[in-house]
Amino acid sequence: MFRRSHVRGGIAVVRDESAIGRVGVLVIGTRGPRGPGEVRIRIRGGSENYLAWSQTPLPEGTVVLVVEYLGPRTVDVREWTDPLGEAPVIPGSTEVPRSGE
User: Fold this and answer.
1) Would residue 75 count as lying in a domain?
2) Which of 30, 37, 54, 67 is the most buried (most CB within 10 A)?
3) Which residue segment(s) compose the domain that 39 sits in?
């Protein structure tokens, strides 16, 4: 979903909230408040990477949930454990794995 967040210098800035609620995997671990990592999420028919901030440091490979959109290609994430358990692995798939994969 795109939503106008505010007007900056006469130009409307669009807020892209479509990443919120998506599950992804950290391809670069976060350093908590000291610095972002990078998360890959499935979105818009493909996979995209975003800068990922978290409250606590999270290592590479951690499955995370996007909880907030912070700005252009930047999100806030929390560690995530899928309540449905592990998903089956499809050989040769490029899909982002769910927890435990």
Assistant:
1) yes
2) 30
3) 19-86+94-101
The pLDDT, as a whole number, for residue 85 is 74
* H helix count then E strand count, the chain: 0, 9
Q: Are 67 and 45 in contact (CB under 8 A)?
A: no
The CA-based diameter of the chain, rounded to the nearest angstrom, is: 50
Examine residue 2 and state whether it is found in any structural domain, yes or no. Answer: no
* Within a domain: 29: yes
Q: What pTM, to 2 d.p., does this model score?
A: 0.70
Q: Are 35 and 45 in contact (CB under 8 A)?
A: no
Band the pLDDT of 58: cuts 50, 70, 90. very high
pLDDT band at 48 (very low <50, low <70, confident <90, very high): very high
